[in-house]
Sequence to fold (300 residues):
Amino acid sequence: MTENRIIDCEAVITEVVKAAMSRTGDPRLKQVMALLVEHAHAFVREANLTDAELEAGLDFIGRIGQANSDDHNEVILASDVLGISTLVAYRNNPREQGQSANALLGPFWRDGSPECRCGDNIARSETPGLATFVQGQVRDVSGAKIAGATVDVWQASPVGLYENQDPHQDSMNLRGRFRTDVEGKYHFRTVRPAGYPVPTHGPIGELLRAQNRNPYRPAHIHFMVSAPGYKTLITQVFADNAERLHSDVVFGVTQPLIGHLEHHKTPMPEYPDAPAEYFTLAYDFVLDRGERTFPRPPIK
Fold:
């Protein structure tokens, strides 16, 4: 079939379009685009899409892009609430050798968060909430400790807002990058995270309302753990007592990512500067050998 064939019936349209793309030089691009056309055309046929529905769908896609800004990424939010981000993360990060579970990046990671010393407090603003002490170890699949690994953390405040969403928080509040010590250990202080609704002011909010879906995420802390010679781990740790663990709007909760947030009301020698009431969270990470890469920041 030549790419210039004149369409003479609906049945040939898909193959004519694929033929037009057949000279694509990049083999992977050629494969992906052929599959996209096949599945998109199959969707049109199965849904029996009308002209009005196509117009509405294209308008919706356009508005997703128009809703993007330096401090908000509606495109990533769309991928998240449709389960695409979680599916891709799950498929591309096997766990057969004990590697830590991955999770979606989400729309709130910022590059260049402050370099911190182990033990530092990432709550830089006047941030209300119970103190939370987080600690753990970074190892590889053989059990070897990884010294000098970077542990990049970010989270929402106890009112459910990331600092770029909240004018009352200082820039880079509740964000920080830590280096593991010679034993591969890290530790830092923060405040107990809260669950929160994803942004609903744009077209994805309209979609969630039309589907009668709750927009909430359970309380969690984001981690990006990296070291030379290892595949970068992008993940999240969820509080085991968080609300909506079973109804995360972006489908990010998997069993290995649920950590025990322990509530303390009496002092412990491990935390001499802890207030009278605080939480602790212990969580280790296991990295796989591979290339150290970093995602493109979804916001500036």
Remarks:
- Helices lie at 13-20, 27-47, 51-66, 74-81, 84-91, 203-210.
- The first helix runs from residue 13 to 20.
- The chain has six helices and twelve strands.
- The longest strand covers residues 131-140.
